[in-house]
Design brief:
3 domains; 11 helices; 38% helix; four-stranded mixed sheet; Rossmann fold; alpha/beta
């Protein structure tokens, strides 16, 4: 249930084109719909400005399909993260409009294109090519949330000239999402050079003592560049949502 749909229902009642009973029937699923195995938050778009996103990794194809069908029927865009290739292929047979992004392991069914909002653009920066799948999850989610997004990949600290040669383009963004594995140093460098909000995303990329991203996470949490926000390991979606909210701060509700 989107804000647009609720306004249409209320305007229909006000204009005498829709009965109170019919309006109640349309609105009865607020604020959530109980599917038995899941409680679908149909009110989240109105509360937070972005729809509920389905985490697909530990759900069955049948569960995702049932949730997805209800989301689409409500007029809301469907976004599924952490969706494996085999699940995506099976899900495509149940949701024919599904679009899959294999690198980001993300799928969507778009009911209505998100209108660009925010003060400016979000730039997603990755340290290495191995970090790119998480960077793409962040970038695609940010686009789906209605942001203008630019990408700058493979500019890690092992060759810092790759980053510094792009400083002028980086400065044009309003919010920076910086994705890095190994020791996770790149967000500290970026934050030390610019006056932009930096959201750091540690990835699980690295050898032995990287501990599946824990080393990068701790490095980012202990950064000496003040003001860096850190999300969980491999959480590109979480970074995109945080960047979206920062990019919208101060905007009017209809901005």
């Amino acid at each position: 249930m989107t804000e647009k749909r609720i306004r249409e229902i209320l305007q229909g009642v006000a204009a005498g084109k829709l009965s109170a009973d019919a309006a109640f029937s349309d609105l009865k699923d607020l604020p959530f719909e109980d599917l038995g195995f899941a409680k679908l938050d149909s009110h989240r778009t109105m509360r937070r400005g972005v729809p509920e996103v389905v985490f697909g990794e530990s759900k069955s194809v049948e569960q995702i399909a049932a949730i997805g069908a209800r989301v689409v029927k409500s007029g809301t865009n469907l976004i599924i993260t952490r969706l494996a290739d085999d699940k995506a292929r099976a899900l495509k047979r149940k949701l024919p409009r599904l679009k899959y992004f294999p690198e980001a392991r993300l799928a969507t069914v778009i009911v209505e294109q998100a209108k660009p909002r925010g003060h400016g653009s979000i730039m997603v920066i990755s340290a290495g090519t191995s970090d790119q799948p998480i960077a793409e999850e962040a970038a695609i989610c940010a686009e789906l949330f209605g942001n203008r997004v630019t990408r700058l990949y493979d500019v890690g600290v092992a060759g810092l000239h790759r980053l510094t040669s792009n400083l002028e383009s980086i400065k044009t963004a309003s919010v920076l999402i910086v994705v890095a594995g190994m020791e996770g140093a790149l967000p500290s460098v970026v934050a030390g050079l610019l006056d932009k909000p930096v959201i750091a995303v540690p990835t699980s990329i690295g050898y032995g003592t990287a501990f599946g991203g824990v080393a990068a996470l701790l490095g980012m949490l202990n950064t000496c560049s003040s003001g860096v926000t850190v999300v969980n390991i491999d959480n590109g979606f979480g970074a995109a949502l945080a960047a979206t909210l920062i990019n919208r701060v101060g905007l009017r509700q209809d901005g």
